[in-house]
Fold these 2 entries.
Entry 1:
Amino acid sequence: KEKHKILHQLLQNSTSPVDL
Amino acid sequence: PEAADLRALSRHLYEAYLKYFPLTKAKARAILSGKTADNAPFVIHDMKSLLEGEQFINCKQIPTPEHQQQMSALTVAHGGLSGAHQGLECNILDAVELRFFHSCQSRSAEAVREVTEFAKSIPGFIELDLNDQVTLLKYGVIEVLIIMMAPLMNKDGTLIAYGQIFMTREFLKSLRKPFCQMLEPKFEFSVKFNTLELDDSDMALFLAVVILSGDRPGLLNVKPIEQLQETVLHALELQLKLNHPDSLQLFAKLLQKMTDLRQIVTDHVHLIQLLKKSEMEMCLHPLLQEIIKDLY
């Protein structure tokens, strides 16, 4: 899951500038 | 009733496509053929016009407020790259390719977000195992982005920056290696792909078929993916029969493109890996790194 953290976030609508 | 369900699926995917992808094929072809009421795109054909056009490439003008909000999220993260780059005393003409490459990365990261939203709109997609959703996107997204470049391209160049700029193929070929090798295979693919004359509603279904590929490495539960793809394939076949009644074997020709795409993506990933080694000052966007790492 850690390897694809941003993809997971995009899929779960939890992307923010801080996350990225 | 079955055909009615397939038509409803086609309409649904077309609506999602229009919602998430700001530059449609219809709009891109209007710009390329000079039929838009707006101004003609700014043409980049040499280093001088590239430097002049850079303010456009930075994608400051965004089509919708929703895109603007999401885009700033992606560019904030990427801003550090240009900042770090400014401190380097590079030859300006050497640096310009890297700056352009960074801009392409920012736009690609935003495009990955658009494709993700589109994937989530495919009925049944978000019910799949979350790890499989990630795998489908990881392997499918570059193929989707290459398909979506086709409407923006003709044999002479490509629209970029949401259709505000036209960059000539000759200029791209004149860049130093390996930058000059990056888009040429996409032009070759696009010119052939465009002869199929798909419209945006056909494209929506084809993109969904590509995303729902059950043979991606590492999938945990292939069966539900194949079932979803089969339904979308039926919808695509029906759509093409109705929308292109005179185009023989269009469905088969389109499916063959999926084989070509895999090779283009493999070559593309190798070029990026080459760039990472040769261009010490080049950084990859974290989202694109995630996708490319251990891909092929």
Entry 2:
Amino acid sequence: PDPQKKITDYYKQA
Amino acid sequence: MFEAKLQQGVIFKKIVDAIKDLVKSVNIDASTSGLSMQAMDSAHVALVSLKLNENGFKDYRCDRPITLGLSIENLSKILKCAGNDDTITLQTDEEEPSSLKFFFENQQASKISEFSLNLMSLDSESLGIPDTDYSSVIQMSSAEFSRICKELSSISETVEIETSKESVKFSVQGDIGAGSITVKNNQSDKDVDRVDLQIDQPVKLTFALRYLNMFNKAVSLSSTVSLNMSEENPLMVEYKIDDLGSLRFYLAPKISD
């Protein structure tokens, strides 16, 4: 299966 | 004092129904400009972002910004007591409220229900989402997008979405076989047939259908959905809520080798 990225890989804590 | 009255309370019920499988607890931030909320699923793969403008409420008052930490499951239990034609009012007069009051009133003003929901103190996990010019934007019937995702999820766990100037192609590959559904640009007058493609750059991205099916719980909020994509970026799925605001879902892609 393709690895699933996380949303936190793209957006950082505000 | 914080008070927000929604003429069509059913919209609030639909919003909570749309997110309750994805997130368990949320901080709703109330300010003079309206309500906003951002929360991630427990695996931090998807993110939901809600914005409701003060202008969309029948009455809105928020003297100072407050944060309302809510269990979505408990909120859902209380909202089940509201009729679909009721107005819904949220209210608290405390600076650091420990509970939020709810008032449900029917159209004839002959029945008024009052509840209070205990609030929780939640760590804020708010992420900064930059304004993005997406290279492919697809606007189509929300029911049609929902149907495509549901149908394809019986064949595969993931879907590849590929855009071109003329069409968008949803492809799957599973143990039983493979397939694709291509939807072409269509300037129909009917919402259900209309497909608007704004493609600056074609993209090809793969996403988990399980999450898309969860996002599609929002289908009753809007007859259209917009899919916003750029290479190397999460997908942004947006449901506009009339004059009130928008419900957005962000989903991190799968990475093919």
